[in-house]
Amino acid sequence: DQQVKQNSPSLSVQEGRISILNCDYTNSMFDYFLWYKKYPAEGPTFLISISSIKDKNEDGRFTVFLNKSAKHLSLHIVPSQPGDSAVYFCAAMLYSGGGADGLTFGKGTHLIIQP
Amino acid sequence: DTGVSQDPRHKITKRGQNVTFRCDPISEHNRLYWYRQTLGQGPEFLTYFQNEAQLEKSRLLSDRFSAERPKGSFSTLEIQRTEQGDSAMYLCASSTRRGNEQFFGPGTRLTVL
After folding, report:
1. Nearest CA in chain A to B109
2. Chain B nearest CA to A56, separation (Å)
């Protein structure tokens, strides 16, 4: 059973526009969420995270929104740049109070930025 | 380079052989994680260590898999009697004890023929 779902395998966005990547989760016990970016032949790179006590976190061009009642989060990238083309993974964790435990990942969304 | 490193980057082996992978975490990180990623999937958690103690193991970690972190620094992941279904990217990540963000290495791609 997939506890973290990214229902769009791919997304194409024009350079300069906003990219919105979506993620849904089923486990209401998840209390910390992260987004990772992955290029081919490299490991995932941490982008941005959000605690369940917040509904928004912003870092430069990246903003993550969390809607706990809907069990939904989204990553906004504004403006989108060619270097943003990559696979984006949503991940969730149960906060143990002593640091990160194993992450549960979605299947990823392949973002393609068109020139 | 002070990031997470993994060795080897690629491994091709025949079915039935044993393989061992190594991970060196970021030096001040005392938590170390192993994940497996297959084509079209996100990384799947296998196990993690806090210092030298193995604190959690996924049910994905069959009896043929064993991980160690003997001195709380680098870690090894061994797969015995490899099967074709073990072909995957094996990722290592590390974090501080209080940090929620995990930082990943480049991975070891295993191909079992």
Report:
1. A41
2. 17
Q: Distance between CA atoms of A94 and B35, rounded to whole angstroms? A: 17
The answer to whether the Cβ–Cβ distance between B95 and A102 falls below 8 Å is no
Chain segment A71-95, per-residue pLDDT in tens: 999 999 999 999 999 999 999 998 6
Note whether A25 and A6 are within 8 A (CB): no
Give the H/E segment covering residue A56: strand A56-59
B42 closest CB neighbour out of A42, A100, A106: A106
Residues of A in contact with B48 (CB under 8 A): 101-102
Regions of chain A short of the pLDDT cut 50: none
Q: What is the pLDDT of residue B1?
A: 54
Closest CB to B99: pick one of A4, A89, A100: A100
DSSP A29: T
Residue A97 pLDDT: 55
Q: Is B25 on the interface with A (CB under 8 A)?
A: no
